[in-house]
Design brief:
Elements (H helix, E strand, L loop, with lengths): L20 E4 L4 E5 L3 E10 L5 E8 L2 E2 L4 E2 L13 E3 L3 E4 L4 E9 L8 E14 L2 E16 L8 E10 L13 E9 L8 E8 L4 E8 L10 E9 L6 E11 L2 E11 L6 E6 L2 E4 L8 E7 L5 E6 L5 E4 L3 E3 L4 E8 L9 E10 L5 E5 L1 E6 L7 E8 L2 E8 L5 E7 L2 E2 L5 E3 L4 E5 L9 E7 L6 E3 L3
Parallel strand pairs: 2-11, 19-27, 20-28
Antiparallel strand pairs: 1-3, 3-9, 4-8, 4-10, 5-6, 7-9, 10-11, 12-13, 13-16, 14-15, 14-17, 17-18, 19-21, 21-25, 22-24, 22-26, 23-25, 26-28, 29-30, 30-34, 31-32, 31-33, 31-35, 35-36
Length: 455
């Protein structure tokens, strides 16, 4: 049996900036003011174990979703020339916190209901004449002048689609679609919406996906355009694609629609299965588990579950699955004697009844767990001047779940899973101290009572 990673997780490591500059209360600011002359304070704290010099500079800040600009002298909604800092250079001792006071002196004829700028905050620490660390932070500000009436005008100018099954992407993988909207804001206020994007197929008369948008996911500056790209796990059918972007921005409702004719040459039927792992043991051998199969494509067909074991059976034997909908199968085992050792692992495969090629992008496994199991992980840390990687191997006879700890901080949001005989490499992206590294693990579905500390 080809044992693959059955749960694909994005392992985001936060080790890189364990020591940095703490900026509070926020890293992005939305401020409302009924005045053009006022002051505002934020705070900087030195979390580096050395004295630090912090410099603060007021700059422009504009993005079109693809690149950033910090120098826009002719942008009429910029507040760069109307904001000053009380101290442009601050010396901070270890763990010391000081305020940064901003003075706003905006002319009465400022044209925008929103004004924008950013602070470039630089941190440098030097000991013995040698620079220990140098960091830069960009802190954006969006100032809403409540005395100025809002003129809101938002329009989707263009739609582009990329089928990842045909054109894979390093970040998003090899299935689903990337949709890019070109959005134009002709109003006098920034668009910082909380709402959703509805993606529909007109000929199929069905909703394909609804993508939530929260504040700062999408920002369109006044009298600017932004390219907003989002991912959906579905392939798109040929025909008319309808997009609706709606929600609230600065308390006002908005909605804009656009359509585009697309042609898709991808005839794959793409499905995914949940849950990804079902375990039968002596205690739950009479349990019936339900598997949900989601159709991520525009193809309608009947699908049939297949497993290489006479001890497992499914009800129903086959099921029709409609475009962008789900169906389910119940799975049970006829095994009564679990006196064996270790896990017996079986992959559940699905076959389309027609000649359609089917691909399951999130395969499921059934495990028959014997009464005697041995959860055993081995690991070592590989380090270079560019970073550290943790190599973990499952040397036991059962599926293992594990968590990676650094100090007292859990680095993975969900437990990682590794099959017997499998090896996983986790790249931290920076050099870490192996003495603070710990892996807690145990049999999948049970408590992680074991610990791996010697690297």
């Amino acid at each position: 049996m080809n044992l693959r990673v059955f749960m694909i997780l994005v392992f985001t490591c936060f080790v890189t900036l364990l020591f940095a500059l703490e900026i509070s209360p926020n890293l992005i600011y939305q401020i409302e003011s009924a005045k053009y002359q006022f002051s505002y304070e934020l705070y900087v704290k030195n979390d580096i174990p050395y004295e630090s010099k912090v410099t603060v500079e007021v700059i422009d800040f504009i993005t079109d979703g693809r690149s950033y600009s910090f120098d826009e002298p002719d942008y009429k909604y910029s507040l760069r020339n109307h904001v000053s800092v009380n101290e442009k250079e601050i010396i901070l001792a270890v763990n010391e916190q000081k305020p940064v006071k901003l003075e706003f002196n905006v002319p009465q004829n400022f044209p925008g209901a929103t004004g924008v700028f950013a602070l470039r905050i630089s941190q440098e620490s030097t000991t013995g004449g040698k620079v220990q660390i140098r960091l830069n932070y960009i802190v954006p500000f969006f100032i809403r002048f409540t005395v100025v009436p809002i003129f809101q005008s938002v329009k989707i100018k263009d739609i582009s689609v990329r089928d990842l099954s045909l054109e894979p992407d390093d970040e998003y993988g090899n299935y689903g679609s990337l949709i890019t909207l070109e959005i134009e804001n002709n109003g006098n206020i920034g668009l910082i919406p909380k709402g959703s994007i509805l993606v529909s197929a007109r000929e199929l008369k069905t909703t394909i996906a609804e993508v939530p948008i929260d504040s700062f996911d999408l920002v369109v500056f006044p009298e600017k355009r932004t390219y907003y790209t989002f991912y959906i796990p579905c392939t798109l059918p040929s025909g008319t694609l309808d997009i609706n972007l709606s929600g609230k921005s600065y308390g006002l409702d908005f909605s804009t629609n656009a359509s585009k004719k697309i042609e898709n040459k991808n005839n794959l039927m793409i499905v995914k299965t949940e849950p990804q792992l079902v375990i039968f043991n002596d205690k739950n051998k009479n349990t019936v588990y339900s598997l949900t199969i989601s159709n991520l494509s525009f193809i309608k067909d009947s699908i049939i579950p297949i497993v290489n074991s006479d001890e497992l059976s499914f009800i129903p034997k086959k099921s029709i699955i409609y475009p962008y909908r789900t169906t389910s199968f119940n799975v049970r085992t006829s095994t009564k004697d679990f006196g064996f050792s270790g896990d017996r692992i079986y992959e559940i495969k699905f076959q389309a009844e027609s000649s359609t090629t089917l691909r399951n992008v999130q395969p499921a496994y059934v495990v028959l767990r014997g009464k005697t199991i041995n959860a055993l992980l081995e690991g070592h840390l590989e380090s270079s001047q560019f970073g550290s990687s943790l190599v973990v191997s499952n040397e036991g006879n059962c599926v293992v779940q594990f968590d990676v700890m650094y100090g007292n901080q859990k680095l993975n949001s969900e437990s990682l899973v590794i099959f017997p005989g499998q090896t996983l490499t986790i790249d931290f992206g920076t050099v870490i101290n192996k003495n603070q590294l710990q892996v807690k693990y145990g049999p999948y579905g049970e408590n992680t009572t074991n610990s791996l500390e010697d690297f």
